[in-house]
């Protein structure tokens, strides 16, 4: 993987503030696969994102990364608390599409 120049390496909080200052209020900062699910064909992803300026962290059970993003998309900009969003996204039965 190519290395970033040092001028592009910022602290996570500085990066988030810079994006918010540019006018974007909802965005994903990180998605990482952390484990396979006991549900066959699914993985567990950890996602850090900003929803209307609030920093959030959730675990998502999804088939792949595009499925994870689409599941997260259905909950952003709705004012759902982090704990509730985490519960919904980490449950295969509650978040069935």
Search tags:
single chain, 97 residues, alpha+beta, three-stranded antiparallel β-sheet, 3 helices, 28% helix
Care to describe what's here?
- The chain is of the alpha+beta class and 97 residues long.
- It has one domain.
- Helices cover 28% and strands 29% of the residues.
- The protein has a 3-stranded antiparallel sheet.
Assign an overall shape.
flat
Which percent band covers the strand fraction?
25-35%
List the domain count as a whole number. Answer: 1
Biggest sheet, in brief? 3 strands, antiparallel
**Which stretches of 5+ consecutive residues score pLDDT under 50?**
none
Number of helices: 3
- Provide the helix percentage: 25-40%
Q: What is the CA-based Rg, rounded?
A: 15 Å
SSE ordering: HEEEHH
Q: How far apart are the termini?
A: 35 Å
Strands of the largest sheet, in order across it?
1-2-3
What is the tally of beta strands? 3
Which class do the helix and strand fractions yield?
A: alpha+beta
Q: Give the rounded overall mean pLDDT.
A: 85
How are the SSEs ordered, and which strands pair?
Blueprint: H1 12-21, E1 27-36, E2 43-51, E3 54-62, H2 65-73, H3 82-89
Brief overview:
This protein has 97 residues and is an alpha+beta fold.
């Amino acid at each position: 993987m190519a290395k970033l120049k040092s001028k592009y390496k910022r602290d996570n909080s500085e990066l988030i503030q810079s994006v918010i200052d540019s006018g974007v209020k909802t965005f994903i900062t990180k998605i990482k696969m952390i484990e396979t699910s006991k549900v066959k064909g699914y993985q567990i992803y950890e996602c850090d994102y900003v929803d209307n300026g609030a920093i959030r962290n959730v675990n998502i059970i999804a088939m792949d990364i595009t499925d994870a993003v689409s599941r997260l998309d259905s909950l952003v900009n709705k004012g759902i608390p982090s704990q509730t969003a985490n519960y919904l996204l980490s449950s295969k039965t509650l978040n069935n599409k």
